[in-house]
């Protein structure tokens, strides 16, 4: 059994395979009508997210399976304070695979360790949302015919935008990628992503505040929403906000085969008028999201004709158990009962450890001499 | 693709066809078990309505299809402020047909224009609820064997009762209809319906405050609830309320083949004791509601053996875009982003225009010389 | 048609039959994949209970049926004040069987009398929860190979624990049962259960405050949660609470084939560490709960190959209608409109009557001379 917490849990080959399966589903849907007959997907949504939930449900139904679960914590045992682990163990008796959305980082990971069926992370707080990234990759692949040799502009809130961080990281494994970071100064891409992802992988990038002048060179324009609340300076916000709203005239200088993407839901950052432009791909993303989820469900249930043997990566890393404590208040370890605090030693020289649930860096340096070494 | 917003969107022939299909389903249910296999109904209920939602769900399941969606706005993207149009475009990627309930008038119409799949209006505020009316027509047809030559009494709140207005309008297209309007003076049928529907179609009607003396002549008695809040004069309410509660003794003077109907849910306006009377048809209405929805789903999905070719009515009316503004605070145009304000010139001589979403009359006279003419 | 309100509605033979069916399902699941094809289960949950609801849904899906309903009252017509009877009559038009959870005692019973399809009580306030008891019996039967000759310890809140009262009552019909009641003095088993169930059936029992010293003699240890709120004396609570938390070391003296059970959800009354002990059976209970519900659905739909002819017990008891009034504020008769107050004369000599909905004892003595005798 294998779960999906993070897009990088999948090798480039496995992602290619998922994309191939998704394309085959799109071309031959009838071949898949009964693939999951008798199987059940449990959608455990501790916070509402209609788009993501309905996408998973549609995916399972188009595979001939059934769906059960809940769409809000208050209609769930969570209201009675049941732990995520117990819920996962219980639901393992009712379903064949879980898609979990949770406000706390690492909650789906805890579920995948406690339960006996595959778990798909459908969004854990501001941490990960791998199926969104897979939908983005499928869309790029279908629109451009490749995942290499692309100039991709990311526009809007690059500081807090989880989908942006995740897609940049996923793209960093391909060749010939160029990135244009378009945002107000206050919402620039965090330094650690620039360093650990872009620079570390020698991905050329530029940073600018100007959307219009950046558009002509782009193959992909990935728009995101700018929330006024993010600005310390209200005037600054009012000065800038319109310049990050994509309109038909801003698209005039763009390539004829530009692909405009957006994770949705949008508020007003893309004018409705743009929807009719053939370069608008954000609703194609929605459809692709369903198909890649179908491919993923098949893969995790072992039902896809896989070229690759799926095996758990045996992990030689050092793990530190109940020595360090995660200080991230949004980490599942802050409330799940009797949950061990486990950190992975990610940089032995520097003594840097990261929480295995939320990946937050430990507040203390850990010098490894002899710690309890466990398998995560 | 065709949607259903208003019972009058359907011709009398199409309604006959739906009734024929419903009757065939009732007689040969097994013929329909797999009709919608592989199809999905999206129930998008922005406000709760268990009866209507479960009726649609049961209908789709009895056709072999699947159901997804939400039963309250707070478990939907709407909470994140997504527009109805974007939700409709998204759900078009997940389902084959939509049943939408929304507190704002015209919201399902906006969805039908934005999405790429049929939309059924499952109730938009106080505006329309066409499947209730279709259920009423099927019930009358089954109980009386005809939709012509009937004396129908409407009792209760005729002023605010949406189902009453809608059924009267639907019946106005049949011959030999007589209407008895039974209500307190404060809750009389609005003048515009008496004039534009009853009088315009030469339908004889009487108005009375007295239920008991009206019953003997009736073929159908359509009961509705009287809400105390509607009365300005509390004493008046207390004086009248019991006289509009249907009891077994009030039924003594009635015809032996009277059909007592009620849209449900009831509070206390029909005594439970009446349920055992063979003339009580309100739970038959519930069952018929399921069957007519099955027929409607089949028709809109193009799966019914239709005698009539379904074609969009080409519409020669004049539409006024972004010149007049709808002042109805319950109209979807009051909050949907970038939604054009479009009015239909319903009375060119008088310069009367109606909002295409909620049908409210424009607050300004519009003298048509040359306005932008668009296809609704 | 027959409904299940109380575990004792089933004879010992019928319970054996359900257990046989459940075991057959576990061994030959494929034989049951299509048993309920075309059937619909309505889950009417007026209060949230994810575990129970998902168990019913999984059960129906594994039988090839469909599910509809609601998981909270606020997304149901109940919000509009519809009576339970009307909802049951309506849902009888949409589904083939109902599983109802309701905060008011007797509500599912009212539904079973009003509707035309079988109703399963999925928990009515503090009153009954028969499918939990059936799951417990199946688990005991599978773990121990018998329901006779067992020493069973009940630990925790024995005063308010509905599942405990219900299981003790169900076990009282078997032979060779010994009961050990382990609880703080404040939460002892109510006297009426000790008298009317244990003593009346000559079941030997002991009462103790000490879990550890009781464990060695037990075949079954049934743990329940102790809620601090239940204690009048906070210090008393703090003194005791840890002694009722089951830990691995407390299990040291236990039999090697002890079965540790818990109705779940747990809070902290069983340490997570115990989960890995082979004697931990509470997640097996979850799985068994699904299988016994499958067996029950089949039985109530008349789809199980039954050795016993299912017949309504003809009831010669005396019922008192609208003479006594139920004073239990949690009884459905306190709010359901036009619901007759009906009491069953359970002890003619003493003039004791019990409400047929919630089984509360009437506050007045009723001396039977001639009362209206009706069929419940």
Short description:
Three copies of one chain form a homotrimer. The first copy, chain A, has 376 residues and is an alpha/beta fold. Chain A has helices at residues 12-27, 50-62, 84-91, 107-114, 130-144, 162-171, 191-199, 211-214, 234-240, 282-300; strands at residues 40-45, 66-70, 97-102, 119-124, 150-155, 177-182, 205-208, 220-223, 259-261, 319-321, 342-347, 352-355.
What is the secondary structure topology, with strand pairs?
Three copies of one chain form a homotrimer.
Chain A: H1 12-27, E1 40-45, H2 50-62, E2 66-70, H3 84-91, E3 97-102, H4 107-114, E4 119-124, H5 130-144, E5 150-155, H6 162-171, E6 177-182, H7 191-199, E7 205-208, H8 211-214, E8 220-223, H9 234-240, E9 259-261, H10 282-300, E10 319-321, E11 342-347, E12 352-355
Parallel strand pairs in A: 1-2, 1-3, 3-4, 5-6, 5-8, 6-7, 8-9
Antiparallel strand pairs in A: 10-11, 11-12
Helix pairs in contact in A: 1-5, 1-10, 2-10, 3-4, 5-6, 5-10
Query: Largest inter-chain interface?
Result: A-B, 27 and 27 residues
- Main β-sheet of chain A, in a few words? 5 strands, parallel
Summarize the helix and strand pattern of chain A as letters: HEHEHEHEHEHEHEHEHEHEEE
- CATH homolog superfamily of the largest domain in chain A: Aspartate/ornithine carbamoyltransferase
- Which stretches of chain A are low in confidence, meaning pLDDT under 50 for 5 or more residues running? 371-376
Describe the global form of chain A.
globular
Structural class based on helices, strands and sheet pairing of chain A: alpha/beta
Determine the N-to-C terminus distance of chain A: 15 Å
Quaternary state of the chains: homotrimer
Our Rg estimate of chain A from Cα atoms comes to: 21 Å
Q: What CATH first level of the largest domain in chain A would be assigned? A: Alpha Beta
CATH architecture of the largest domain in chain A: 3-Layer(aba) Sandwich
């Amino acid at each position: 059994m294998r779960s999906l917490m993070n897009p990088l849990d999948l090798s480039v080959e496995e992602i290619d395979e998922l994309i191939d399966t998704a394309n085959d589903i799109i071309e031959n849907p009838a071949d898949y009508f009964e693939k999951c007959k008798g199987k059940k997907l449990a959608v455990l949504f501790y916070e509402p997210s209609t788009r993501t939930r309905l996408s998973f449900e549609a995916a399972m139904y188009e595979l001939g399976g059934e769906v059960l679960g809940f769409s809000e914590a208050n209609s769930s045992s969570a209201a009675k304070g049941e732990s995520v682990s117990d819920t996962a163990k219980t639901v393992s008796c009712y379903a064949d695979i879980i898609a979990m959305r949770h406000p706390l980082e690492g909650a789906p990971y805890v579920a995948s360790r406690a339960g006996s069926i595959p778990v798909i992370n459908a969004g854990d707080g501001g941490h990960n949302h791998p199926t969104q990234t897979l939908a983005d990759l499928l869309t790029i692949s279908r629109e451009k015919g490749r995942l290499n040799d692309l100039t991709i502009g990311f526009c809007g809130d690059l500081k807090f935008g989880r989908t942006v961080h995740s897609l940049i990281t996923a793209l960093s494994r391909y060749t010939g990628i160029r990135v244009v970071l378009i945002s107000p100064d206050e919402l620039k891409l965090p330094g650690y992503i620039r360093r650990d992802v872009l620079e570390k992988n020698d991905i050329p990038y530029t940073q600018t505040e100007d959307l219009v002048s950046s558009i002509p060179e782009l193959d992909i324009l990935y728009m995101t929403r700018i929330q006024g609340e993010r600005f310390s300076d209200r005037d600054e916000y009012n000065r800038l906000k319109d310049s990050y709203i994509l309109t038909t005239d801003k698209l005039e200088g763009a390539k004829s085969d530009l692909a405009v993407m957006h994770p949705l839901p949008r508020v007003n950052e893309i004018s409705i008028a743009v929807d009719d432009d053939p370069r608008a791909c954000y609703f194609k993303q929605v459809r692709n999201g369903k198909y890649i989820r179908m491919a993923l469900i098949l893969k995790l249930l072992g039902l896809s004709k896989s070229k690759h043997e799926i095996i758990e990566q045996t992990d030689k890393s050092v793990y530190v158990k109940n020595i360090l404590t995660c200080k991230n208040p949004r980490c599942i370890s802050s409330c799940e009962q009797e949950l061990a605090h486990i950190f992975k030693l990610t940089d032995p020289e520097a003594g840097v450890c990261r929480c295995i649930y939320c990946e937050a860096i430990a507040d203390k340096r850990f010098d490894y001499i002899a710690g309890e070494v466990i398998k995560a």
